[in-house]
Amino acid sequence: MKKIAALLFIVSFVVVFSLTSNLKAHASVEEQIISSINKIQDFIVKSSSTDLAFSSSPYSYIKNNKDFDDIVALGDPALPVLKNMLDNSQQSGLIEYIYAIAIEKISKIDLRKEVNWETAKDFSAKYTAHVKEIPDKVDSISNEGISDNEKVNKLKDLGTPAIPYISQKIEEGQKELAPALDYLTDNESQDDFTNWKKENADKESLLKSFVEQNSK
After folding, report:
1. How many domains is the chain built from?
2. 98 and 54, same structural domain?
3. Residue at 120 is within a domain
4. C-beta separation of 147 from 154 below 8 A
5. What is the spatial distance between Cα 135 and Cα 138, in angstroms, rounded to a whole number?
6. How far is CA 51 from CA 45, 56, 61, 68, 193, in A?
7. In a domain, 122, yes or no
8. What is the pLDDT of residue 216?
9. Residue 92 burial by Cβ neighbours in a 10 Å radius (0-12, 13-18, 19+)
10. CA of 181: how far to CAs of 55, 96, 106, 148, 166, in Å?
11. Global pTM?
12. Do the domain assignments include residue 65?
């Protein structure tokens, strides 16, 4: 009986520790994003008296900007945070536009290849629609009567939120789709798919949850 109680205690501890670690990691990503955004805002204010202030392109403010690059470098874990910040903002200005650009870069997509968007809020609505369709599109593309190369290119265009759905197809035997996964994972999955899948279970879970949240 004591052994069972001890075992239950250990299991409970591991579960709680895992949940706590995930929450801390999420908080850490959010803190890093907020810190970088604050620095970008300071840069924008300081640029108000320079030639940059006359630029009509938000991209001018993030070109060679280390703080923006730091946000992008956080990778997929930053997507839920950035999307929430964009959706919860009451504004649709320059900072929100920068959120949108970061989301696109991290997701490895060019949404304008599908639909046009002008404002950050417009982007958010159309990005949500894009993400919502990912599970069905992966199914459709993987079974479409087109060449493997065409399938791979279409899957690439879905972006990193499609990673867990593409990897599932590969695991089920559709090895021809692997180049799409390799592209979206920066070739991390290329050498050893099985080992990559084990090591990135948390990442796949995060992305799947992100897709599901945007499907509600």
Report:
1. 2
2. yes
3. no
4. no
5. 5
6. 13, 11, 11, 20, 49
7. no
8. 85
9. middle
10. 37, 29, 15, 13, 7
11. 0.85
12. yes
Question: Collapsing DSSP states into helix, strand and coil, what is residue 57?
Answer: coil
Print the domain residue range for 164: 132-213
* Alpha-carbon distances of 135 from 5, 40, 102, 156, 188, rounded to whole Å: 42, 35, 23, 14, 22
Here the tokens at position 183 are 């592209």
**Shared domain check, 150 and 93:** no
Radius of gyration of the chain (CA): 20
Q: What is the pLDDT of residues 15-68, one digit of tens each?
A: 333 434 444 455 699 999 999 999 999 999 888 777 776 666 889 889 999 999
Q: How confident is the model at residue 122 (pLDDT cuts 50, 70, 90)?
A: very high
Give the helix/strand (H/E) hosting 66: helix 66-73
Q: Is the same domain home to 148 and 85?
A: no
Are residues 137 and 203 both part of a single domain? yes
Instruction: Look at the block and give the residue holding tokens 């499907």.
Output: 215
Based on the domain organization, do 103 and 142 belong to the same domain?
Answer: no
